[in-house]
Write a structure and sequence with these properties.
By secondary structure, the chain is an alpha/beta fold. It has a single domain, classed as TIM Barrel (Alpha-Beta Barrel), CATH 3.20.20. A five-stranded parallel beta sheet has the order 5-4-1-10-9, with helices on one face. It has a three-stranded parallel beta sheet with strand order 6-7-8. β2 and β3 form a beta hairpin. α1 packs across α7. The chain is globular and about 45 Å long. The termini are far apart.
């Protein structure tokens, strides 16, 4: 097992597993701005519209990202915090950026950060918490609501103690409470310690914090080996943002990578079942399109964003037809 638990802890874990199916939170779910969708809004994660540079994807300026999302018709954006930092460091005004976002009719429902809040090393973890605090402070200036908290720094660790991780997540949530930003426990399917829905929910439950919430992802659930039916055991408001994408039948789970993700509906993921399961739990989340497809990066970003939105809408429509 990719966790370090003794017999007493394993018994306690069994109880926590039951509690996971009953997890409730006082945190407010993301508003579904599009009233035509059954409880879902539509968000653009900015990895989707990077520019191909011959080797990989180069992020576009945050101002351009906002304009693309608005032109494509999204309700919200999910920027990467490092690009917001770059904008600020180049002399950009946070007040101006916030106004640009609001004038475009968008909200900042979530953002992607990479603070090492989870690691065992005390000094590294303290530095990670300071990074998370700076990221949250910056997000607040542009109207941000949530910050993704993936297992950065512990992805290759096989003996990570999930009870300790739960305490660390509680601390991160306390920092978020003070600032006004909610850290979302993010699933990474390639992680050796936080790749399963059960591990994610264990940490959320054992954190003992009422604002605990999780950030699942179609691709990462598949990559990590969990069954999508597990989403039915998660109280709906505990998922406030959900990463939408799809995956092909080949490459297989063992070797599939981020770049293999495709538009919703262009792969083999059971999107209808996933969306109906989310809805059955009372989930009214933002569906955030997160792709890393190099072929899409070579195309016009507005058309990519529009296509992705159209395919997300089609998946929702088909699920509830």
């Amino acid at each position: 097992m990719p966790v370090s638990l003794d017999r007493r802890q394993l018994i306690a874990a069994g109880g926590a597993g039951l509690a996971a199916s009953l997890l409730t939170t006082t945190a407010q779910p993301a508003p579904a701005a599009d009233r035509d969708a059954p409880g879902f809004g539509f968000c653009l994660n900015m990895s989707t519209i990077r520019e191909f540079d011959g080797k990989g994807g180069t992020p576009r300026p945050i101002t351009e990202q906002v304009d693309i999302a608005a032109q494509a018709g999204y309700d919200a954006i999910e920027p990467w915090v490092r690009e917001v930092h770059q904008y600020q460091e180049s002399g950009g005004s946070m007040k101006d950026l916030r106004k640009r976002i609001e004038d475009a009719g968008l909200t900042v429902e979530s953002a992607i950060g990479f603070a090492s809040w989870i690691v065992d090393d005390d000094a590294q973890r303290a530095e990670g918490l300071e990074t998370a605090k700076r990221d949250m402070d910056l997000l607040l200036e542009i109207g941000g609501k949530r910050l993704a908290a993936p297992p950065v720094g512990a992805t290759n660790q096989t003996d990570l103690n999930l009870f300790a991780v739960a305490e660390r997540y509680h601390k991160l949530l306390e920092i978020g409470d003070d600032i006004g930003i909610t850290p979302e426990l993010e699933l990474w399917g390639f992680s050796k310690s936080m790749s399963r829905l059960g591990e994610l929910m264990f940490v959320a439950v054992e954190s003992g914090h009422r604002s605990a919430c999780v950030l699942p992802d179609v691709y990462h659930i598949y990559k990590g080996g969990s069954e999508f039916t597990g989403l039915g055991l998660i109280h709906g408001p505990s998922i406030q943002v959900f990463h939408m994408n799809d995956y092909p039948a080949d490459p297989p789970r063992e070797t599939i990578g981020d770049a293999d993700r495709v538009y919703p509906g262009d792969g083999v993921a059971p999107l209808g079942d996933i969306l109906r399961t989310l809805r059955s739990t009372g989930c009214h989340c933002m569906l955030s399109l997160e792709l890393f497809n190099r072929e899409y990066w070579k195309q016009d970003p507005v058309e990519v964003a529009k296509t992705g939105l159209s395919k997300m809408r089609a998946a929702v429509d088909a699920a509830f037809a």
